[in-house]
Amino acid sequence: MFFESRIFRGWYGGMMLLWVALFAALNSIPFLLDHWHYPAIMVMGAFVAGLTPEGGGAVAFPVLSVFFDIKREMARDFSLMIQSVGMTSASIWILSRKGRNVAAYAPLLWFVPVSFLGFVLGMLLLQAIPVFIIQALFLSLILTFALAYVSSKHRGERLVLKAKGPLDHAMLVGVLVAGGMCASLFGTGADIVLYTMLVTRFRMDEKVATHMSIMVMAAISILGYGYRFFWDGDITDYQVRTWLCAYPVVLFMAPFGSYILHKLNVEWMLRGIVALNIFQLGYFNLKNPSWEKLAWSSGSSVVLFAIFWFSLAHIARQTERQRIAAEAG
To answer: Which family does the record claim for this protein (predicted)?
Structure first.
């Protein structure tokens, strides 16, 4: 059952009480009604965050930045803020389930600080990139990943990460830093690149890799939100109030997505996410069209899809070779 864990029930109840107190002190019903689109967006966004290796920002960032013309920085910050609740809630649900091998997630103790280092580097070095390039890169990232994810038979089987030698660790560090830099631009992305590495190079079980990517993105969202609030000091009262509008939605929907992941064959849901991503990229190119937007979105889509496809297909070929060898033996 969804609420079978006493730890999760305690977390959920405590966070709902905190939301009631914060909403009463900082927000209002008229503001919520005027900004209904924030919780509406996150019904799908948070569900995606719990169900797949894509964070809720994979829906929130393009919808706010492209459809509603909200500043790229505010869309990124909203993604971080909302994932700090939703993906943390999903993480606690995952870790508190009966029979969970918590020790399998020990690598997160060093994944998180390395990825956060990438986030800080991205905040310092990448923020001057033109907005349309960031939008094109992100929309290409989520579309091509979703396409490769759905169409490739990339299932691994290892339940524990087995990194051997300096090369494996160097590759993980590079991917984690790159993922943190993605999060500094989009508010998400660290989960996608980490997942791809775990299921290809390390042949990890798809669901375990999804869980680990969710937990890393949850931690980066909290730390990134803290960085923006305490270090940069750029989080406004308006942003806090929009966050509070969507808070209870993601608190429930993200762990509910993880619950559905354990119960159902989710291939049709994933195909729906692909369709949504195709629509987002198409809308981006048709709204105020330019050759620069088309070139960046199409070029990056081709490159990223090739990377994801060959990476995810690699494990499928390895698995098939092992199956044939086992049958021959």
So the answer is: Belongs to the 4-toluene sulfonate uptake permease (TSUP) (TC 2.A.102) family.
